[in-house]
C-alpha cells in the first residue's frame, strides 16, 4: 500500500476504529483504514483472511491490504478497505425512516448475492446488520443506483460452531441473532438468513425487529430472542411477508438458504417491467408487461397473427372505428392463446401493439402494428 494520511473518523467498534484516509498520491482515491493495537488485532487478521477468500465478489467490500505502524509508542495494525462514500445501510434507514419497497427489493437482492458468496465458501458472517452493510452511491449521482456491499467480517466463522448457552459466549448483535445461535450456540448459514430478515423488517419500520424489548437487560433480551420470532410488518407486500416467513422459520433446517431466496418472487419478480436492481425499460410489446416470459394474457384477449399491410391510416384518427383491411387478422377467444399455438408472435424493431376494449365482449380487438 502506498503512503497515506489519516483524516476524520468514520466509525468506532469493539475491534477497532475506522478512519477516512487519503493516499499521498493525488491521483489515488480515498480509502478506509480500520486500525487497532497489534495486541488486539486478531479480529482484523481474521477479517483480512476472509476478505482474501472473497476477493472479486462484487457484493463484498474489497480489502486493499494491510500494514503495521507505530504511533506514540504503540504498535498498530491497519487494514485498508475500499471507501463507501454513502455510509452504511443504517445511515440510509435512519435518514429515510424506512425505505420504499422498490429499494428494499434491490437492496435485499444485493445482500443475498453477497451471502451466496460467503456461504459458498463455507463461511458465516455472524454479525449481519445495517451498520455492517456499506452504501456505494451510483456513478454520476444517478438516483436509485446505490450499491450495497457486505463488510465487517471480524466475527466470521467457517462452517458451524457450537458455543454453548451456559458459556455465554455469544457472537453477533442481539437484535439480529437467531434463536438457535442463542439457545444452543448453533452457528451456520441459517443465522445470516435470520439476520437478513431482521434487516428487512428494519428497512420497513425504521426500527430493529425486536425494538420493543430494547429496555430489557441483556440476558432477558437473549431469552426473548431464543423463543420468539419477530412480527411481520403490515406495510409490506404479500411477497415481502412470505419472504420474511421463510427467513424467520424457527427451525434453522426449514429456513430458506440465500440461493433459494434469490429465486423468491420478492427479489426475482420484475417490478413495472424491470428486474429489481435494474432501471426500467420501455415495453416493446404487451408481453413485456407480463410478470414472466411464460405468462399468458387473461381470458378474453384476442389471438392474432400480423400480416403485411400498406395502409397508412393513422391509428389516432378518431373516425376509424375498425382497423383497415389487411392490418392484422384477429379473432375473439374465450381463453388465452396457447404459448405453443404460434398466436403470440414477436414484433421486430420498435414495433408496438395497441388494443381497445369495447363495452361488449365481441368488440375486443387488436388494431394493428405500428
UniProtKB/TrEMBL annotation:
<keyword id="KW-0808">Transferase</keyword>
<protein>
    <recommendedName>
        <fullName>Protein kinase domain-containing protein</fullName>
    </recommendedName>
</protein>
<dbReference type="GO" id="GO:0007165">
    <property type="term" value="P:signal transduction"/>
</dbReference>
<dbReference type="Pfam" id="PF00069">
    <property type="entry name" value="Pkinase"/>
</dbReference>
<dbReference type="InterPro" id="IPR008271">
    <property type="entry name" value="Ser/Thr_kinase_AS"/>
</dbReference>
<keyword id="KW-0418">Kinase</keyword>
<dbReference type="InterPro" id="IPR000719">
    <property type="entry name" value="Prot_kinase_dom"/>
</dbReference>
<feature type="binding site">
    <location>
        <position position="34"/>
    </location>
    <ligand>
        <name>ATP</name>
    </ligand>
</feature>
<dbReference type="InterPro" id="IPR011009">
    <property type="entry name" value="Kinase-like_dom_sf"/>
</dbReference>
<feature type="domain" description="Protein kinase">
    <location>
        <begin position="4"/>
        <end position="267"/>
    </location>
</feature>
<dbReference type="InterPro" id="IPR052751">
    <property type="entry name" value="Plant_MAPKKK"/>
</dbReference>
<keyword id="KW-0547">Nucleotide-binding</keyword>
<keyword id="KW-0067">ATP-binding</keyword>
<dbReference type="InterPro" id="IPR017441">
    <property type="entry name" value="Protein_kinase_ATP_BS"/>
</dbReference>
<dbReference type="GO" id="GO:0005524">
    <property type="term" value="F:ATP binding"/>
</dbReference>
<comment type="similarity">
    <text>Belongs to the protein kinase superfamily.</text>
</comment>
<dbReference type="GO" id="GO:0004674">
    <property type="term" value="F:protein serine/threonine kinase activity"/>
</dbReference>
<keyword id="KW-0723">Serine/threonine-protein kinase</keyword>
Amino acid at each position: 500500500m502506498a503512503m497515506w494520511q489519516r483524516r476524520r473518523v468514520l466509525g468506532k467498534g469493539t475491534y477497532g476504529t475506522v478512519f477516512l484516509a487519503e493516499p499521498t498520491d493525488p491521483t489515488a482515491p480515498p480509502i478506509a483504514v480500520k486500525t487497532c493495537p497489534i495486541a488486539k488485532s486478531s479480529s482484523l487478521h481474521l477479517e483480512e483472511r476472509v476478505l482474501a477468500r472473497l476477493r472479486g465478489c462484487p457484493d463484498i467490500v474489497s480489502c486493499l491490504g494491510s500494514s503495521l505502524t507505530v504511533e506514540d509508542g504503540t504498535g498498530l495494525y491497519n487494514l485498508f478497505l475500499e471507501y463507501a462514500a454513502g455510509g452504511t445501510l443504517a445511515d440510509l434507514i435512519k435518514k429515510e425512516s424506512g425505505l420504499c419497497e422498490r429499494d428494499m427489493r434491490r437492496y435485499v437482492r444485493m445482500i443475498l448475492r453477497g451471502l451466496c458468496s460467503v456461504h459458498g465458501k463455507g463461511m458465516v458472517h455472524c454479525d449481519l446488520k445495517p451498520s455492517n452493510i456499506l452504501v456505494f452511491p451510483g456513478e454520476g449521482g444517478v438516483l436509485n443506483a446505490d450499491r450495497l456491499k457486505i463488510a465487517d467480517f471480524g466475527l466470521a466463522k467457517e462452517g458451524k460452531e457450537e458455543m454453548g448457552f451456559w458459556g455465554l459466549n455469544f457472537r453477533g448483535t442481539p437484535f439480529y441473532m437467531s434463536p438457535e445461535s442463542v439457545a444452543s450456540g448453533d452457528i451456520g448459514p441459517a443465522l445470516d438468513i435470520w439476520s437478513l430478515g431482521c434487516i428487512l423488517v428494519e428497512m420497513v419500520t425504521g426500527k430493529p425487529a425486536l425494538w420493543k424489548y430494547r429496555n430489557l437487560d441483556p440476558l432477558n433480551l437473549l431469552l426473548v430472542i431464543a423463543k420468539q420470532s419477530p412480527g411481520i410488518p403490515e406495510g409490506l407486500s404479500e411477497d415481502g411477508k412470505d419472504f420474511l416467513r421463510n427467513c424467520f422459520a424457527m427451525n434453522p433446517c426449514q429456513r430458506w438458504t440465500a440461493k433459494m431466496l434469490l429465486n423468491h418472487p420478492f427479489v426475482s419478480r420484475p417490478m413495472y417491467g424491470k428486474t429489481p436492481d435494474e432501471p426500467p425499460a420501455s415495453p416493446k410489446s404487451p408481453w413485456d408487461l407480463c410478470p414472466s416470459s411464460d405468462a399468458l394474457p387473461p381470458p378474453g384477449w384476442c389471438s392474432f397473427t400480423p400480416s403485411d399491410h400498406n395502409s397508412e391510416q393513422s391509428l389516432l384518427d378518431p373516425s376509424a372505428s375498425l382497423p383497415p383491411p389487411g392490418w392484422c387478422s384477429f379473432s375473439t377467444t374465450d381463453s388465452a392463446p396457447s404459448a405453443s399455438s404460434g398466436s403470440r408472435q414477436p414484433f421486430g424493431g420498435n414495433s408496438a401493439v395497441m388494443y381497445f376494449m369495447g363495452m361488449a365482449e365481441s368488440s375486443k380487438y387488436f388494431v394493428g402494428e405500428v
